[in-house]
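Q: Got a minute? One more chain.
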Amino acid sequence: MNSNDKQQSPEQAGEHLTEETTQAVHLTQGEIHAIQKALLFLKFECEETSSLLYSGSPLINSALSKLREADIHGDFSKQFHSRPSPHAEAFMRDKLERSYSEEHVPHERTEAQLNDIWQSCMFPFPATSYKQDSDPK
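A: Always. Here it is, folded:
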């Protein structure tokens, strides 16, 4: 490799980096599966309400979509996640309700905002409209 072939980071090349800047990453299928499992664990098995910051993140959901596209078993995953999951819905509903009740300063959220949060948190599963628990515990 001669000095003209040296790879430069975007910073070295003088590019302005943003959240939308893309980088090529080469992952093995094992790494792809591990990352997908970790993200799905974070969303649908991690009890900590603070995990909702990531569970509903559009960036996390976008990464999960891209990983599924690169996965050799992506079609199976898409088919599996195309059906509603009563278990995932119950888990996420409980986690969201606990999070809302734990707020030190309660936030007023419109029905549209609650639905957006719900849809983001439930990805990659389809989800019906969010309905708050009318019987507080």
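A: The CA atoms of residues 4 and 104 lie 57 Å apart.
Q: Perfect, thanks.
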